[in-house]
Design a protein that fits this description.
single chain, alpha+beta, two-stranded antiparallel ribbon, transmembrane helix
Length: 131
């Protein structure tokens, strides 16, 4: 088996050109590292819940109870991907019924988020997820 130095002898000595190429390639590593680390700060997913459109004619109580609660880490938080069927709660609101007292929220039909999401701005002001 041949020696590594013998195999690469045709490349020549470690001269100014090799040093220049080495340092230029080394300098390109720094911006690549920054772009890789930027995802940590830009791609965070904040807490979110289904958006209820402003055009929906809901009372304040029904607007506050329009998203079902789920158990997460021992506390009840708004569901991030479901809401109560908007037509049903708009009808209950128009009739003057109160959520939880006149209407059992557990029995209401749910739907997926049809109007987008509302994102919490407690941790992040803007991320690629919220945009």
């Amino acid at each position: 088996m041949r020696d590594y130095d013998e195999v690469t002898a045709f490349l020549g000595e470690w001269g100014p050109f090799q040093r220049l190429v080495f340092f230029l390639l080394s300098a390109s590593i720094v911006p690549n590292g920054f772009s890789g680390m930027s995802a940590v700060f830009l791609a965070g997913t904040p807490e979110h819940r289904c958006r209820v459109p402003d055009a929906a004619n809901l009372s304040g109580a029904w607007r506050n109870h329009s998203v079902p609660l789920r158990l997460q880490d021992g506390r009840r938080v708004p569901h991030s991907c479901r809401r109560y069927r908007l037509a049903a709660i708009a009808n209950f609101s128009a009739l003057g019924l109160e959520p939880g007292r006149d209407v059992d929220l557990e029995q209401l039909e749910q739907e997926r988020c049809l109007d987008g999401w509302e994102f919490s701005r407690d941790v992040y002001l803007s991320t690629i997820v919220t945009e």
